[in-house]
Amino acid sequence: MPPTRNLVWSKERIEMLSKQEIQQLRANAESLGAQDVLAMCDAALRGSPRSGSGKGGAPGKNGKARRLISRIRAFEARGVYLQDQRTSWGGVRKSDGMVVMSLWADAVKSRDGGCGYLLWAPNVEGSRPWSDSPGGRERLKHCQTGLERSSPSEGLLVFGERLDGFLPEDKARSVHGVDPETVLHFKVEKHGEEYWAVWGKKL
Q1: Low-confidence ranges of the chain (pLDDT < 50)
Q2: Which residue range is the domain that position 28 belongs to?
Q3: Number of domains composing the chain
Q4: E-strand stretches of 89-164
């Protein structure tokens, strides 16, 4: 369950979670702007839990305060080698067939009590030209594969600055890198012709 006003998270409660659960909670807290929960998650992940109001240098969505690595290295760390290092935003891990996709961090939305991310939508009247590009067509295949699998897909958060008029997957003003410490586990859902990544409802 993500951090909400009707659910109080304490450092003691967070310390009882597994590392993966703390990472998931942290991603939810960041997307929802819950700075106090974000700070406690950071403290727990560092192994020195402390209470805080979120003013102690908690990293923002632009990722500049994080230790970031390139998208290529982040995928290789997950056992995935990109088909095209310039245009690919995902891949399939050969060892287990897991679909791994990169998500633009500030495009994560609060959705139905959890978090959601629009992975792919059709290019209707030129609204999303990236969807028809090689990278977009590859993303569609990964979405279809993820939808068919019974196990969750993995997501890597990409931090950077958007360029007005473009999807970040197509073109961005700047790309700071990927946070290697945060790996999301999400379900791929199809709504109409759109494919969404959905996660966070169970924490």
Answers
A1: 1-6, 48-61, 63-64, 202-203
A2: 1-58
A3: 2
A4: 90-92, 99-104, 109-111, 114-120, 153-162
pLDDT the model gives residue 202: 46
Element (H, E) at 27: helix 19-32
63 domain residue, yes or no: no
Q: How far apart are CA 120 and CA 142, in angstroms?
A: 10
Element (H, E) at 181: strand 172-191
Nearest CA among 84, 79, 89, 78 for reference residue 158: 89
As a whole number of angstroms, the distance between CA 58 and CA 30 comes to 10
Considering the domain architecture, whether residues 82 and 41 belong to the same structural domain is answered as no
> Which whole-number Å values give the CA distances from 20 to 14, 37, 89, in the listed order?
11, 15, 23
Taking a C-beta distance cutoff of 8 angstroms, is the pair 116, 198 a contact?
yes
Are 86 and 118 contained in the same domain? yes
Side-chain half-sphere exposure of 199, counting CA atoms within 13 A: 26
Same domain, residue pair 40 and 82: no
Which run of H or E residues covers position 180?
A: strand 172-191
Q: Residue 6: what pLDDT?
A: 38
